[in-house]
Amino acid sequence: MKKMFPVMSSSSMHPSYNSNGGYQFRKPHHQPGPHSSHSQYSMVHYQQPPPPQPQPHYCVNHHYPHEQRELIQEDINGSLVVPEALAPDCLVKHPLQNQWTLWYLEADRSKSWEDLQNEITTFDTVEDFWSLYNYIKLASEIRPGSDYSLFKKGIRPMWEDEANKAGGRWMITLNRAARSDIDNLWLDVILCLIGESFDHSDQICGAVINNRSKAFKISIWTADAKNEEACLEIGSKLSDSLLLDVGALNYQQHSDSIAKQGPGVKPLYTI
């Protein structure tokens, strides 16, 4: 890594901080006399306080985002000093294949279901996702009766949306899970979606986490419930990626959920 500050050496150059925000160097003057063997430096006065401490910056390891991040330093003039091997990776944002919108629903009986949905923001890069995720509350911390929904841009988290109405959802119910398990599972689901982890990622519409009084529920929505090959491939990959027990994933068709609702909805597929 490059040096943060100029290095003072034993040479005859003596640095001092000048009023222009940089270092100046003054040559020593010598005491007169033939037997003088050492140098004395001229008096230097600071014209302003020393500069503030450099501010740290961080570079995310995008392949392993949970690992410790590389520190990037700022030099005396405020310019970033980046490790050469990491510079290109840290200074360029990494685009996602799709744009994704985060929605938040907070229960309010005075509003319609559609009015309860609040569109928070849309992102399309790895860096913007992590900036958002690290800013908002964790899924386990939202109020009971509330939802987080992450959908491809232009798709609303509603059964009636044109992109959703012929589809269905893979359901995971977490009755007595620890909060950390809930948050980790939800994050893994998000990363599967935005990382396009499925052979049939084009069938993915989005995902929802519901905080209810007795349980948390996570659902992954697909576009066509009758596309058995795509639905089963997505379900199998989810089960493997999330390390779920056999039978933990059930697929419900939206049309069945609208007609029946509650625990009486018969799953179309189970993994």
Explain what you see.
The protein is α+β, with helices and mostly antiparallel strands and 271 residues long. It contains six helices and 15 strands. It has helices at 87-91, 113-116, 126-133, 179-194, 228-242, 254-259; strands at 14-17, 23-26, 29-30, 39-40, 57-59, 70-74, 80-81, 95-105, 117-125, 147-152, 168-174, 204-211, 216-222, 250-253, 269-270. The strands form four sheets. The protein has an eight-stranded antiparallel β-sheet. A three-stranded antiparallel β-sheet has the order 5-6-7, with no helix packed on it. The radius of gyration is 29 Å and the shape is globular.
Key features of this structure:
271 residues, alpha+beta, 8-stranded antiparallel sheet, 3-stranded antiparallel sheet, 6 helices, 15 strands, globular, disordered N terminus
How would the blueprint of this fold be written?
Elements: E1 14-17, E2 23-26, E3 29-30, E4 39-40, E5 57-59, E6 70-74, E7 80-81, H1 87-91, E8 95-105, H2 113-116, E9 117-125, H3 126-133, E10 147-152, E11 168-174, H4 179-194, E12 204-211, E13 216-222, H5 228-242, E14 250-253, H6 254-259, E15 269-270
Short structural summary:
Helices cover 20% and strands 28% of the residues. With 271 residues, it is α+β, with helices and mostly antiparallel strands.
Secondary structural class: alpha+beta
Stretches where pLDDT is under 50 for at least 5 consecutive residues are: 1-47, 57-68
Widest sheet, order of strands? 9-8-10-12-13-11-14-15
The CA-CA distance between the termini, in Å, is 50 Å
Oligomer: single chain
Average residue pLDDT = 77
Strand content: 25-35%
Beta-strand segment tally: 15
